[in-house]
Amino acid sequence: MAIYAIGDLQGCYEPFQRLLDEIRFDPANDTLWLTGDLVNRGPKSLKTLRLVKSLGDSVISVLGNHDLHLLALSQDAVPFTTRFESLAKTLNAPDIGELVDWLRNRPLAHYSEEMDTLLVHAGTHPTWNASKTLKRAAEVEEVLRGPKFATLLGKMYGNRPTRWSGGLKGYGRLRFIINCLTRMRMMTPDMRLNMRATGAPWRAGSKRIAWFNFEEPAWGKTRIVFGHWSQLGLIVLPGLISLDTGCVWGRQLTAVRLDKRVNRIFQVPGQS
Asked: Do residues 81 and 25 lie in contact, with contact meaning Cβ atoms separated by under 8 Å?
């Protein structure tokens, strides 16, 4: 049995198929960890989403911000604009109801105690260990899977609050958790989310810090696997694996085997 983590797919169906062939993925024995953003921007979001769903329990996929966009559009919680054109076919699919039900039941974070490894789309807060990250994620998951999920999808947009506090309540609290787990890249030195910073961290200057670069983060030696940050690219370190290697921009789609002492890397060309 092998466990592979794969970066953001974003509707890149053919590269995903090629990568599954490259790693010789066997859904009867192997497991895929997907960093989220299954859809949007790429040409075949619907086929990609259907393929991932068809793999059943052999796939663990966390929700990314583009997945949440699809859910929001499906509930008319956000207006359809040109930036979502690649999702039009998905939204009009005859099985959109089944796909939405499946997608909104995906987690925002996943943790393996055996590997001491946490999977998220964008990152986690420097004051949250793996257990707290799962608890915060569960707060959002409970609403997404309940009768008020459409309301949450309409209220999740926005960049405030920017600072975490255990005293945050209501949709502001849920919005912060969503932003932290699915949108975050940079923070200020006092740990405020900075959503305007999207470039590479080495160009950020002294007033912005990558979420994973704070000293003595609460997650300690837990390995964190994430995507979302294509300008960051591939990073494979003992405690940190960054997997968004810009497949949708024509770069690569990347998989890393997680269950071996040495993380073997697999790559195929991205979307042409």
From this structure: no
Describe the crossing of helices 45-54 and 13-22 by its angle, rounded to 10 degrees.
40
Closest CA to 69 of 81, 61, 57, 56: 81
Give the pair of three-digit tokens for residue 54.
């068809």
Considering only CA atoms, which of 240, 215, 218 is closest in space to residue 35?
240
Q: Do the beta carbons of residue 37 and residue 67 sit within 8 Å? A: yes
Listed in sequence order, the residues at least 6 apart from 215 whose beta carbon sits closer than 8 Å to its beta carbon are none
Q: How many domains does the chain have?
A: 1
Q: Mind listing the pLDDT tens digit for each residue in 193-243?
A: 999 877 777 777 778 999 999 999 999 999 999 999 999 999 999 999 999
The CATH number of whichever domain residue 122 belongs to comes to: 3.60.21.10
